[in-house]
Structure formats: structure tokens, C-alpha cells
Write a structure and sequence with these properties.
The chain is α/β, with parallel strands linked by helices. The protein contains 9 helices and 7 strands; from the N terminus they run H-H-E-H-E-H-H-E-H-E-H-E-E-E-H-H. Helix 1 packs parallel to helix 8, helix 2 crosses helix 8 and helix 5 crosses helix 6. The longest helix has 23 residues. The protein is globular and about 55 Å long. InterPro entries: RpiR-like_SIS (IPR035472), SIS_dom (IPR001347), SIS_dom_sf (IPR046348), SIS_GmhA/DiaA_subfam (IPR050099), UPF0309 (IPR022951).
């Protein structure tokens, strides 16, 4: 096996090990998060997910997704969600701006009783910290998906000295090590091969799957979307979206 194939195998092994850890160690909290989402769906509430930079990928992966809940909405912050902003470093800078989260929430449709999922690998920047703080102050339930290791090994960048994990109703630990890189190799100075997107996306899908199961156990048909690339998929999705139009914001 060549060096490149060996490294690929090591990366897969590292990712699998992280997934197993999260499965085994976060099972109870993932169940609680899925149940909270199911409670919110049943009560007529709305569900939003937010992440900045690459942390947004796991949030986006649950929105308008075949096999996913139609009620998952993305809370967007201009210049922060994704890496399409120029220069790309601006997104990282905006994460450290105090007060931005409050302005976003004040102009969003979120209301007391809704659920906001905040995804931040480090959980140390002002934006995710204040997003969770302000959301709870507004009466929202907050699920935080973060790496607890950062709160234990790095310094908070928020004036309060706190982290995302300190302002959540439920904290899901991704187990990602500080630096988000799984591999090292002599001759390469920097560690490489991040796994946070793999793990956080899996956690988000596990939470959504749990919510669907809880709703079904209660006799409620979960509002799931089908693939638009299978026969009847568009008709199915159109019906679901019409039924839940008042809680779906990515169509507006």
C-alpha cells in the first residue's frame, strides 16, 4: 500500500473511532436533543440551526434534505455562513464581533418555545456564545454541538470568559481534539485531515432521526422530505411543505 493509501486508511480509522465515541458517550444527550425537537414539532414550534464557517456545513446538511425533517431551518448571518464571503478571513473575523448575534436574533422569526441548534467546533468566539445566551434570554431552547475539549484547553474570546457549552439546555460533545486535525507525518509541519464535518454532520442526522422516531412513537407522522429524484418525490414534498408552510422559512 502506498503512503497516500495508508494515510487515507488512517483517516477513515480516526473518523470511525470518533463516531464510535460519540455514539457510545453521547447517546443519552442525543436522545434528549431528538426528543426536544419532537416536542417542539408536536407543540407547533419552529426549529433553526446555526453554524459559522465550516461549522455551518452540518447545519445546512439538515435543511431541505431528502430523508430529513421539513421543519429544519437555517439561521443565516451574512458573511458568516460558509466560505463564499471574500476575503474568506472576514467570516472568521465576524465570529468575534460582539453584538452581532443579538441583531440577528432580533430580526429573525424565532420566538419563545422554538429550538435553536448552535454548532461551533471551538465554542469560544463571541458569535456562538452570544447566539446561545441571547436565544435563551428570548425563551428559546438551545442545543449546542461543540467540542468540549476547546473549553478545557483554550481561552474564551467572549468578554464573559464563557463558552457555548455554558449557555445551552443540551450540550452535544463532538469529541473533536483541539486543532481539528487527525493526522501527522514526518516532513509535514502542520497536522492535517480534519474530521469535524464528518462527526458533526453525523450527530445532526442522528438527532433528526431520533426526533422522527419519537414522533412516530407518539402516533404523529413526522414531516419528512423525500428525494426529488425519485418518482413522486416532488408531489410528496409539496404536500408536506403546504401543510407546514407557516414553519418553513427556506421557501420564502
Amino acid at each position: 500500500m502506498g503512503e497516500s493509501n495508508r494515510l487515507a486508511g488512517q483517516y477513515f480509522d480516526a473518523a470511525i473511532d470518533l463516531l464510535r465515541r460519540v455514539r457510545d458517550e453521547e447517546d443519552e444527550r442525543i436522545g434528549a436533543a431528538g426528543t426536544l425537537i419532537a416536542d417542539t414539532v408536536e407543540a407547533g414550534g419552529r426549529i433553526f440551526a446555526f453554524g459559522a464557517g465550516h461549522s455551518s456545513l452540518a447545519a445546512q446538511d439538515t435543511v431541505y434534505r431528502a430523508g430529513g425533517l421539513a421543519l429544519m431551518n437555517l439561521l443565516t448571518v451574512p458573511g458568516v455562513v460558509g466560505v463564499d464571503v471574500r476575503p474568506a478571513t472576514l467570516g472568521s473575523a465576524l465570529e468575534r464581533v460582539d453584538g452581532l448575534a443579538g441583531a440577528v436574533l432580533d430580526t429573525s422569526p424565532l420566538e419563545a418555545g422554538d429550538v435553536l441548534i448552535v454548532i461551533s467546533l471551538s465554542g469560544r468566539n463571541s458569535l456562538p456564545v452570544e447566539m446561545a445566551m441571547n436565544a435563551r434570554a428570548l425563551g428559546l431552547k438551545v442545543i449546542g454541538l461543540t467540542s468540549v475539549a476547546y473549553a478545557e484547553e483554550t481561552k474564551s474570546r467572549h468578554v464573559s470568559g464563557t463558552y457555548l457549552r455554558d449557555h445551552c439546555d443540551i450540550v452535544l460533545d463532538s469529541k473533536i481534539p483541539v486543532g481539528d486535525a487527525e493526522l501527522t507525518l514526518p516532513g509535514i509541519e502542520a497536522p492535517f485531515a480534519p474530521a469535524s464535518t464528518v462527526v458533526t454532520s453525523a450527530v445532526m442526522q442522528a438527532v433528526v432521526a431520533t426526533a422522527a422516531g419519537v414522533l412516530a412513537d407518539r402516533g404523529i407522522d413526522p414531516p419528512l422530505l423525500r428525494s426529488g429524484n425519485v418518482d413522486g418525490g416532488h408531489d410528496w414534498n409539496g404536500r408536506v411543505m403546504r401543510e407546514y408552510a407557516d414553519r418553513i422559512y427556506y421557501r420564502q
